[in-house]
Amino acid sequence: MPVQPRSRVVILGGGTAGWMTAAALSALAGAACKVTLVESADIGIVGVGEATLPHLRAFITRLGIDEHAFMAATEATFKLGIEFRDFGRIGDRYIHPFGSYGQPLNGIAFHHHWLRRRGADGTSPIGDYSPAVVAAEQSRFAFPSNRNVTNSFGYAYQFDATRFAPFLRTWSEERGVRRVEGLVANVDRDDPTGDVRALQLSDGQRIEGDLFIDCSGFRSVLLGTALDEPWEDWSHWLPCDRAVAAPCASPPGPIEPFTRAVAMPAGWRWRIPLRHRVGNGYVYSSAHCDDATAQAALLDALETPSLAEPRLLRFKAGRRRRSWVGNVIAVGLASGFLEPLESTSIYLVQMAITRLLEHFPGRTIEPVDRDGFNAAVDAEYDRIRDFLILHYHATTRDDSPFWDHVRTMRIPDSLEEKLELWRRSAQVQQYGYGLFLEPSWVAVYLGQGIIPERWDQRADLLGEEALDRALAELRAAIAREVAAMPDHRDQLMRAA
Amino acid sequence: MSASPPIRTVAIVGSGVVAGMAALALTRTLPHARVELVTMPVPAEALADRLPRLWPSAFPLLPSLGLAEADLLARGIAAPLLARRFTGWSRSGGRWMCPEGETVRIPGTGALHQRWLHAGARMAFHDLFPAAALAEAGRFSPDALVSTELAQADVTLALAPDRFGAVIGAGCQRANVVVSEGPLQAALPGPDGGWRAIRLASGRVIEADLFVWAAGKPLPGEEWLDWSGVLPADRLTVTRTDASGLVDEYETVGDGWRARWAHGDTGIGAVAFNAGIGQAKPVSDAAEPLKLTPGAAAYGWTGNLLRLGDGAAQLGALALPGFTLAAHHLLLALELLPARDMEPVLVAEYNRRARLRTEHLRDFVAAHYLAGGRRRGPFWTGLSAVEPPSSLADTLAQFRRRGQLPHRDEDSVPADAWRAVLLGQGIRPAVPDPVVLGTDRNVERQTLMSACRSLAMQAAQFPDGAPAPGISFVRVPKPHTAQD
């Protein structure tokens, strides 16, 4: 295999996406590339993703970052799932846990057995068979262990996203990433290939590179503006296009190890408990709610006074048709946007970085690099999109024009097929790769009241008595082991 | 429980192990249904029935049959196979293996095959498989599969058709499967490409909610997708040989390839070739070539008619994947088993997933021919001009570029097996993996060699040859992780 000189990678943008990319490339591909990151203090960062998914743990571990140091620097708490309130109908609530419900019995997924005994004496909500749900409900947390029945869960973090990028910046610069302060005045492109050759900065600096990573956020300076890659609009399925955010002081009492999403008349409201404050925001559709009303609704819902002026964010659901064009790869918001209902923003950054490492081109880019990367990214976006739409569409709410719209809208065929499969058979369309596998779909389907007509016929082969006994034993074991877990706040003190 | 009542009658057509397996699994899944097996001789060409190999990916079917792989091995119903060995297949002509299971786990940075490529080690990639170490040593014990160092080893089950058929038959008898004398004379069409009823040669008409065609050949007159271009061996001669060992052997000759397969207490010698190109020297003058028709039915399930075995897809004799594919199809059918009204959404989902699984397995077999290996000899010369299916073309392009495999749902082949074949055939990625570039080659080389020596030493502790009947063991579950 020929030895190639290190390629020059230029990252534009110093937010979460930019510094995550810089950190990963410097730590994992330092022998293959030299990384320069261009950012400007004059451009604020969105600071996406206060709430994250368990995959972030793998990212941190792979880079060799100390979890304690990371959590302390970002005021992080542990997260076991997301609580959804009022989505299926007003008054409903459920937790989408990080982990599965129960365990397969006779090779059949647990939810089929639970459906069979649903409504029978002694059968409790399916959440009682999830260690993550039970622990979240009691604000307890312990690290997963292989020793007991509570090992079937994962955990993520809730953190101050504005502190994540600075943490990674320090970490990356120690590993050789060159940071350049400056604003892009011009993008020099090659004729006739159209590839980007250099970024011309307003102070006269010229940053040349072989590969350019666009982490410039919604502005999408390289992929969107310079290369004019078309935008695929998904706002007809995901109509929320604004958010107003305001932190408040932590109320006394337990720190919940979960994020809360509360359905609102024109969208939903988040609540993310950190160590030092609580993050709040109202994601809404501007076609159904004006900014002032949204802001008032958010402030009205805060448990303690706001710590800062509410901040308004504008966005649109969708993605660039391709994330990698020529020698430009967009990562994060420069590539696309899916609203944070399931905390996917940082995951999408991480996923793109992983795919980039898999398809890292060296100094010469071939179409096969781009094709492989784009196909993998597209599949992830499509599947997450369907999952998010499900949260809105699976409702009986008719109390506002917004919910009327999302309840009655035409959904993607791919989601319609998944829904129909579930309704008829309690089967979840299977895929082996990507985010939100069977337990997640089961959580939302059941949590939002879509009860299938029947279950896997093989579940009936287990005797009722034996099944009831197995369910009771599992429930008791989970309750017992969760009761032995420390309080979440105490666990954070230990980790500090 | 359901608005639509469950299936109450099933009629399965076929006399081979595929039909029997379907009857047993369906009657155990639907204990209140009447399951009827209509005998119909399976042709000698029905490789899924005649030469059943159960790959580890399909072991999850066994509980549906009331069986376990340990029990099949212990009772001598199956022989363990640790690898397929290929001689003359790569352009350089070297020998390589596709072992069962995964590569050994060695602490370090990056994927093991990328580390091996970077290190430039002299050892073959397959030497990093615990199963290969056992195969090279000619040693096996079920204990090897639960030992710490060799835990990534696995086995394919070479099922003895007569013994396996007897076990399945006994199971069917216990489960009150009704056996009716065939053959089938006519099928009376029903809605959506299904059957309303079948008429037997005796004149008897059988109606059923679900029909299974498992007669070892495509349905007469049915659309059959022709894959002979990418699976070019369409003739096969077979003959009994002496007992074989723990490895299936494949060696190229100018007109095709020869194989030596384990088969119960004996072995089978085979020669595969293409009728339009030439004829390799048969292993026995008496052996009549079998006519293979590589391809697949356009749909595996239409209306109330499910196709299994060689009537659903034929992927040829190389690696003998037919029975494993039938097992996967049956497992999927059990998972998505519709109610009596044959919900179209379930049938559609079955066809979607079954097609993916069939095509990915076809790609794996086709890669042995089309991944740029041997091109000398009449059989092989023309393969350079054969265009792979687009999914395989994508796999080859991605692997040639950086040693990456596209993520595929419904793949019966572990990623390490794909890597063993593509690297064995001589593909060397053009671009190095950035993650392993920073490691010291010499240190990495020593690390890998040390691991191989350790594997060899571990393997040497186990007894020669296949296990004696009566040995039993408990397997540590090895779930196939969706995402590393």
Task: Report on the architecture of this protein.
By secondary structure, chain A is α+β, with helices and mostly antiparallel strands. Chain A has 15 helices and 21 strands. Chain A has helices spanning 16-28, 55-63, 67-73, 110-117, 131-137, 161-173, 221-226, 291-301, 345-358, 367-393, 401-408, 413-425, 438-447, 464-483, 488-495, and strands spanning 7-12, 33-39, 77-79, 81-85, 93-97, 156-158, 178-181, 184-189, 196-201, 206-208, 211-214, 231-233, 242-245, 259-264, 267-273, 278-284, 311-314, 318-320, 324-325, 328-330, 336-337. In chain A, the strands form five sheets. In chain A, strands 5-4-14-15-16-13-17 form a seven-stranded mixed beta sheet. In chain A, strands 7-2-1-11-20-19 form a six-stranded mixed beta sheet. In chain A, strands 8-9-10 form a three-stranded antiparallel beta sheet, with no helix packed on it. The N and C termini of chain A lie far apart (47 Å). The model of chain A has no long low-confidence stretch (mean pLDDT 93). Chain B folds into two domains: 9-76 and 160-227 and 294-354, 3-Layer(bba) Sandwich (FAD/NAD(P)-binding domain), CATH 3.50.50; 82-153 and 230-291 and 362-460, FAD/NAD(P)-binding domain (3-Layer(bba) Sandwich), CATH 3.50.50.60. Helices cover 29% and strands 20% of the residues of chain B. Chain B has twelve helices and 22 strands. Chain B has a seven-stranded mixed beta sheet. In chain B, strands 8-2-1-12-21-20 form a six-stranded mixed beta sheet. In chain B, helix 4 (112-119) crosses helix 12 and helix 7 runs antiparallel to helix 8. The longest helix of chain B has 27 residues, at 344-370. Chains A and B meet through helix 10 and helix 12 of A and helix 8 and helix 10 of B.
